[in-house]
Design brief:
Strand content: 15-25%
Structural class: alpha/beta
Number of strands: 14
Oligomer: single chain
Number of helices: 10
Length: 340
């Protein structure tokens, strides 16, 4: 299928939803412009590394074929194919591999291999000085939320929440197409069906967030998230509902839910059955209970997270969020590129 036609059928934007906010709760927070890492072009190189779980070379072949079809070159880090316990090599091997790709001027973006667990074990040893001077897109989600949080908290440089090596399945599925657009500097624009649980409203603010477990795990650390005046995106996989409840209560008690500009709920998938006690609330009800007293827009079922439709999101970048019960739109506000 023609790629342009594919995206037009997949992501139709409602003009009415984009320009009319009458009757909505409005939460507009001014954001200073942020400089985006440079766009990628044909011939640029994407480096692959595994700072968390291990990935076999066989699982990289499909992803590499997609990236090469897009015109990119692929550089395999030394952790590809390595395994130490559940990780893609020892802590030292994973740290050195990530650092090498981060510092290499010939690597134009870094794509992480797999989530799971492990990034927190090395994040505090990473030297970010060269990355600060010459940013590049860092791409991943799940456990790699640690990277997103750490970079936002300490450097303020945008990063890409999107598919990793093990999640890329085809050139023109929704996940890959949105990642293609993000890497090429095409502003991301989403429109999708609303939910009866949505709280209508409009917000203009910086988008932050990622995996809920990692946001909770990084609380109080050098990677702690600042949510004040931000649009917070969260997603989760394979958790009991009571643990989701506990993590959200932690965010509420620590004041991270009371000053939001907006809240976006992505996929909450493969929720475990609570075998210890009956927990009657749905995930949507658990969330809404925590934010009921606030007035900012809330939307459910955004197509991102541990799911087939894992649409790319530029974290650290201002967006416009419009929510009602029929439709939700999220539109990236174009920003200047890093010079040089």
């Amino acid at each position: 299928m023609n790629r342009k036609k594919f995206l037009q059928t997949l992501l139709p934007l409602s003009v009415g939803a984009m320009i009319s906010h009458r009757g909505f709760s409005r939460n507009t927070v001014p954001d200073f412009p942020v400089a985006l890492p440079p766009n990628l072009k044909a011939g640029d190189t994407i480096g692959i590394t595994c700072p968390a779980g291990f990935v076999t070379p066989e699982k990289i072949l499909n992803c590499a074929a997609i990236l090469k079809n897009w015109g990119f070159r692929v550089c395999y880090g030394n952790t590809v194919g390595k395994q130490w316990m559940r990780f893609g090599g020892t802590d030292r091997e994973r740290l050195e591999d990530f650092q090498t790709l981060l510092d290499d001027d010939n690597i134009h973006a870094v794509l992480f291999g797999k989530g799971g667990y492990g990034t927190m074990r090395i994040i505090d040893q990473v030297n970010w000085e060269k990355f600060r001077e010459k940013p590049k897109w860092l791409i991943g989600y799940s456990d790699l939320t640690t990277v997103h949080l750490h970079v936002q908290a300490n450097l303020g440089i945008p990063t890409l929440h999107g598919d990793m090596v093990t999640g890329m399945s085809g050139d023109y599925d929704r996940s890959s197409s949105t990642l293609f657009d993000a890497l090429h500097g095409i502003p991301l624009q989403y429109a999708f069906r609303g939910s009866a649980m949505n709280r209508p409203g409009f917000a203009t603010a910086t988008l932050v967030g990622g995996n809920l477990s990692m946001i909770a795990a990084c609380a109080g650390s050098k990677s702690d998230i600042n949510t004040a005046g931000k649009i917070l995106f969260i997603e989760e996989v394979s958790e009991y509902k009571y643990t989701i409840d506990r993590m959200l209560l932690n965010l509420k008690r620590s004041g991270k839910l009371d000053k939001l500009a907006g809240l976006i709920l992505g996929g909450f998938t493969a929720v475990k059955v609570d075998q210890e006690e009956t927990f009657q609330m749905s995930v949507e009800e658990i969330v809404y209970e925590k934010v009921r007293e606030y007035g900012y827009p809330v939307c459910f079922n955004f197509p991102a997270g541990h799911m087939k439709d894992n649409c790319a999101l530029k974290l650290g970048v201002p967006h416009e969020l419009t929510v009602n019960q029929k439709e939700v739109t999220l539109v990236e506000i174009p920003q200047p590129l890093v010079s040089g």
